Prior knowledge:
3-phosphoshikimate binds at residues 21-22, 26, 163, 165, 311, 338. Keywords: Amino-acid biosynthesis, Aromatic amino acid biosynthesis, Cytoplasm, Transferase. By secondary structure, the protein is of the alpha+beta class. The protein has two domains: 2-19 and 227-428, Enolpyruvate transferase domain (UDP-n-acetylglucosamine1-carboxyvinyl-transferase, Chain); 21-225, Enolpyruvate transferase domain (UDP-n-acetylglucosamine1-carboxyvinyl-transferase, Chain, Alpha-beta prism). 29% of the residues lie in helices and 26% in strands. The chain has helices spanning 21-33, 47-58, 93-104, 124-132, 164-174, 192-199, 230-241, 261-268, 313-322, 342-352, 382-391, 414-421, and strands at 2-5, 12-16, 35-41, 62-66, 69-75, 87-88, 110-113, 136-138, 144-147, 156-158, 181-184, 203-207, 210-214, 223-225, 247-254, 272-281, 284-292, 326-329, 356-360, 363-367, 374-377, 399-402, 425-428. It has a four-stranded mixed β-sheet with strand order 21-22-1-23. α1 packs parallel to α6 and α4 (124-132) runs parallel beside α5 (164-174). It starts with a strand and ends with a strand. Shikimate-3-phosphate (S3P) binds next to α5.
Amino acid sequence: MYLVVSPGGTLRGETTIPGDKSISHRALILGALAQGPTIIEGFLASEDCLATLNILQLLGVNITWQNTQLIVNGQGLDALREPLDVLDCGNSGTSMRLLAGLLSAQPFASTLVGDQSLSKRPMARVVSPLSQMGAKIVGHVAPLIIKPCDGLQAIRYEMPVASAQVKSCLLLAGLYANGETIITEKVASRDHTERLLRYLGADITTQKNQIRLNPQAILNGKALSIPADISSAAFFIAGASATPGAHILLKGIGINPTRMGLIHILQAMGAEITLHEKRYAGFEPIADIEVKGITLQGIEVPEKWVVSAIDEFPVLFIAAAFAQGETRFSGLAELRHKETDRIAMMAAGMEKLGVTLAILPDGIIIRGSKITGGIVDSGGDHRIAMAFAIAALQASEPITVQHAQHIATSFPSFCDIANLLGLSMIQEDNHE
Length: 432
Ligand code: S3P
């Protein structure tokens, strides 16, 4: 599918954004392990989260929709049953890495598979610590074949790379281990798993960057409200921040400190972003985010904000191309292991659009440029497709994004919301 975006347009108005992808996965998985119903409001029905949902159903979990609420009827930690089929994670790294931890502890065998992109992504980062715990896993990339083991041992683990997926994988395995699982991070990655575990009654504490979890017989199902996804809102926040005349208000967005890198980086570039009505939606903080567009200034992006902005760099690169002067991003080696190599893929498309840039081994330098237009490839990466659509705000010609169907991975209503706010984009099956 092609996404054809008209040049210009604006971002103005008030809207809501769909639920957080990371929290939706975790609500499903922990709901499945809890005792009694977990009633989820604001679940993100995107392809990635539906992959987790389908897998849990294959593991015997009863999950139903009741109007806008998703009800996960958990039967406790030991109620999963052997699946009759392979477990397809599609494009979703979160599904594969989190479920690898959970499945390692089960008394039955299972196989996790993924699409072409996911099958190339590194899984050794979960297989290796899980093996230290005693898990029996074959494969360092998908497919992962997981065999029943003789019980998991709790470990102390120092995370070599900041990754919430790896941390969450080990916490899920730790729920079944004999003893205390202790995980230390150099930089705090998103902590949704820890918050939700605590909310459902788990014995988990965080002190500085150390997390300690003791296994527990019961988690309690509860009503959960999932905040709007700041990583989806990011496309409009970054686009509006860097476009004079733009003015948006996005309601009920998750503002967990471990996800705030986008806001810090844009504010350092001069963005006028205000958080209104800060409040809690259950276990996560939220706010209404107002953005007024101006011309941003290029900066050297401090590496301390990389982890908390890890999914936002494609659109931050576009904001840097809209800005005055040069923006230098470094410390981004992890971007090369996402759904695509996001440094290479973004650089290729941005050069086609007339942006002056230089690629670094772990980052990119982007000069504020006049953006032309043309056909750019997203490589099937949802966030790259949406970032290039946002580039049209300041383009002089239409931008056509190839393989844009993958936007449904995380944000199926992206085009509708973008059009509502003042961009103009249509989807085409064929493009001349
Ligand atoms: C996620 C963690 C991040 C992020 C991904 C979602 C999660 O990945 O990029 O989109 O839900 O835990 P890493 O853990 O690999 O950094």
